[in-house]
Design brief:
The structure is a single chain. The chain is of the alpha+beta class. It has a single domain, classed as Nuclear Transport Factor 2, Chain: A, CATH 3.10.450.50. It is 45% helix and 25% strand. It is built from five helices and four strands. Strands 1-2-3-4 form a four-stranded antiparallel beta sheet. A hairpin with a 2-residue loop joins strand 3 and strand 4.
């Protein structure tokens, strides 16, 4: 009797496993399916990483990273030079829950454009373009245009 129960249980588990496998195959959820998005790499990923880092540094109010690591030298100079951190802090003092969503990236050699949608608490969402330039071996923010 125990042997029959065990055989029935193994059969049920086996049937369930095959049914689940069939469902996964039919829905295209196995790795390597045609619907699986490709991972972004190369310059587009580098730009996406800069935009993600811009969002994090803005949320954390880490304007030293913004001025010293994310801006190009000329962007930093336009943002106050040695006073960049203080000016950015003052400019962003009322910004809460800042979000930056990357919409599109265009690469043109050492230059790139990132189209983004920015939102913050109590403010209207804006679509903007962030210009980036490869400087000192990586993309950095050179300008922001609405």
């Amino acid at each position: 009797m125990l042997a029959e129960v065990m055989r029935g249980l193994r059969g049920a588990i086996s049937s369930l496993a095959w049914a689940l496998l069939a469902a996964v195959v039919l829905t295209g959820c196995l790795p390597g399916s045609d619907d699986e998005p490709e991972k972004t790499k190369g310059p587009p990923k580098e730009v996406a990483d800069v935009i993600a880092r811009l969002e994090r540094t803005t949320q954390r109010r880490d304007f030293g990273v913004l001025c010293n690591e994310l801006f190009t030298r000329s962007a930093r100079a336009r943002a106050g030079g040695k006073d960049c951190v203080a000016l950015m802090r003052e400019t962003a003092k009322d910004v809460r829950k800042a979000r930056i969503r990357l919409l599109d990236v265009e690469i043109d050699g050492n230059r790139a454009k990132a189209r983004v949608r920015t939102t913050a608490e109590g403010q209207t969402a804006l679509e903007e373009t962030i210009d980036l330039v490869r400087e000192r071996g990586r993309y950095r923010i050179s300008a922001l245009a609405s």
